[in-house]
Amino acid sequence: MTRAFKAFAIAAALSAVTTLACAADDDVGAIQMAYEPSIIRLGNQGWYPLVVQLAAGWRGSRYWAVEAFASPTLTIETAGKPGPDYFSSVVGLRGVGYLPVSDRWELMAKVGVASTTLNHSDAVGHVTITDPVVGGGLMWHGGPHLSVGANATWLTKSHTPMVGARLEWRL
User: Fold this and answer.
1) Of 2, 56, 74, 145, most Cβ neighbours within 10 A?
2) How far is 171 from 129, CA to CA, in rounded Å?
């Protein structure tokens, strides 16, 4: 099991414990899980499918949530071997703000920090950087426990955009 998935599992467990400890309070939100299939742009190497980002957190109210997120290893091959720089993994924490625009639609904004690992095919090997993360999207509520929408995320320091869908479910 990689460090990213261990960190993701620990964050999900802490989120669950926090929510259960406060379950008697009617104002407490719910455990929120998110699945984000995206395409990713790696420098001048172009766009590549499919990167999956998984998130677990706590939706404190209709207006905000806190999430831990992770993307597994992705190796991009060019001409049968890895490109000069390729995205390996990302794990982080973010705050998510929601602005309802109707009963079913809301705008979403994400701000956080991630640990991003980039691999290099030269002598450098791999580099892990602390990466500020910003993003946003438009979500549609299919019911009290499910939302779907369009989503974009930017890993600012590694100059890595991800664009795709977002599926949220609340327990």
Assistant:
1) 56
2) 33
Distance from the Cα of residue 53 to its chain's centroid: 5
Domain boundaries, the chain: 3-170
- Residues 61 and 106: their CA atoms lie apart, in Å, by 13
Which helix (H) or strand (E) segment is 11 a member of? helix 3-21
Residues with Cβ within 8 Å of residue 23, at least 6 apart in sequence: none
Q: What is the pLDDT along the chain (171 residues), one digit of tens a residue?
A: 466 556 555 655 555 444 444 444 333 578 999 999 888 776 666 676 677 889 999 999 889 999 999 987 655 555 455 454 556 788 999 999 999 999 999 999 999 999 988 766 555 667 788 999 999 999 999 888 899 999 999 989 878 888 999 999 988
pTM of the full structure: 0.74
Phi, psi of 53 (to 5 degrees): -115, 130
